[in-house]
Design brief:
mainly beta; eight-stranded mixed sheet; 3 helices; 224 residues
Amino acid sequence: MKLLQVRKGQFVYYNNELHKVYTINPLAKKSVHMYRVKDMEQVTSKAEEITLHKLRHMDAFMLMGKWYTIREDLEPEIDGYILVTKPDPEPMSHYGLNEFEKVEQIEGRTVVTARQNPIKRKEFVVLREGLEEGSRNIAYQDLSKVPEAQIAEDAKLAAQLSRTQEIQPNIGDIYLNLHNGGRSMVVAVMGDDVWLGHGEKLKIEDLLDADHWTLVYVNTEFVL
């Protein structure tokens, strides 16, 4: 696959596992930047090392340790999730191809998501939690090549990620500064460092210090 054919948001297979492209850097040797869908592990590759997957009704995959099945025949529900497959955003909206969104309101044939994006029904498919009967497992390109030990590890993934997220700040979380009353959103996490929306950089251990900061909002979105 040539670089010009790679598009941000596409689902692709890399090393037999389902990934999602989040950016492309044409000047880099490994130009395609992706994250593995099942656990958000980031990776870079060359365009020729990946294979495009076009999503279909009843495709099922693991997202952050939980299984979801694509359903084109269901209507969205409040607090449920959708996948934007045909984006046609309004000027003030912020979403693109294959983005995961949580439904907050339903207004006729349009949903308003937790990120305040109004998305028309023709733009998305519904994500039903669970590996539904009759669905196709697309977590791996060739399931026969996956060792049983890896399948067992995948089964434990949801619990592992849940424990990690309980103690680690995530992008989109909002913390209250107990000294000045200011609220700040986490905009980046790298290693032991956290960047807040107003530009301050902290160590994770400092942000988790209950004498100085308290968590007031937990980001439940799938997007990074």
